[in-house]
Write a structure and sequence with these properties.
Elements lengths: L1 H27 L1 H22 L8 H27 L2 H8 L2 H11 L6 H17 L14 H29 L1 H20 L12 H22 L3 H8 L2 H12 L6 H19 L1
């Protein structure tokens, strides 16, 4: 029961963080928003590192893996927020949550056995993504209606985050989860600051900061909750926390009043089923 509660909370926190990130990026663009989200997210990331001191092994091999994790994490965030600027949050979030399928494909290519449920789930993911990407919304002229481009960007997010998940698994035991999150997010922040500060593009309106705080801390908190929940059962935690895309989609549909066409709703249902299947597989 504790594991279920923690996993469900992680999904809600991650979903809210994703929506907040999308809304903030719509105001100032992905790069500036991500920089502030990473910075404010350190409010949680640093204490978690202090609690888990000392860090694990850090050598050249681990550093190279951290660089790959950072590149994938950062590019995935950029793709996600670009997608949410082009189309509906309720389309982008569930498709981006398919990164588990990409990670599974990498494992298959590297020779790990594959189950039937994974194969079926991957097929559902492709079909659902195509249906969800059907152009247009239920309201002609509605804002953020380029769902074809949004879904393509969400697909790119799933790919790079899938690589991130696989790469992180290579060094998580060496370094420790909290330190992996802190170092990857810290390195990404340094990269963005190096790009934005010289050009004077770091400044954002004050109304953007609450979105950045929710997005940054939500990402760190959601991951921490997932780690604790996985101790009560990894499969259960993976299934429930993987539904953050569903939570974000529901917020988009019910709170932000996004409107999709019938085929897009059906596609999102298939994507959700695919996420569950990939988690179980």
């Amino acid at each position: 029961m504790i594991g279920i509660a923690l996993s469900a909370t992680a999904a809600i926190v991650w979903g809210a963080a994703g929506v907040a990130g999308g809304l903030g990026a719509r105001l100032v663009g992905p790069q500036r928003f991500i920089a502030w989200a990473l910075l404010l997210g350190m409010v949680l990331a640093i204490p978690l590192c202090v609690i888990t001191w000392p860090p694990g092994r850090l050598d050249l091999r681990v550093a190279l893996w951290i660089a790959l994790v950072t590149a994938c994490m950062l590019s995935g965030l950029v793709f996600t927020y670009m997608g949410m600027r082009r189309g509906s949050i309720s389309v982008v979030a569930p498709i981006s949550a398919l990164y588990g399928g990409v990670s599974a494909l990498i494992s298959i290519v590297l020779g790990e056995p594959v189950t039937l449920i994974v194969v079926v789930s991957l097929l559902l993911a492709v079909l659902g993504g195509v249906m969800a990407a059907s152009s247009g919304t239920a309201e002609p002229g509605a804002k953020y209606q380029d769902n074809r481009a949004a879904a393509a960007l969400a697909g790119l997010t799933a790919i790079v985050w899938g690589v991130q998940l696989w790469a992180g698994g290579q060094i998580q035991d060496d370094l420790g989860p909290s330190w992996l999150v802190f170092l990857a997010r810290g390195l990404a922040l340094v990269v963005l600051l190096a790009l934005l500060v010289p050009r004077g593009e770091l400044r954002v309106p004050r109304r953007v900061l609450p979105y950045a705080l929710v997005a940054g801390c939500g990402e760190v908190a959601g991951f921490s909750l997932f780690l604790v929940a996985s101790g009560y059962g990894l499969a259960q935690a993976a299934v429930l926390t993987g539904q953050y895309g569903t939570v974000a989609a529901l917020i988009g549909l019910l709170v932000l009043k996004e409107r999709l066409r019938g085929i897009q709703y059906a596609g999102l249902v298939l994507v959700v089923l695919a996420v569950i299947g990939l988690s179980l597989g």
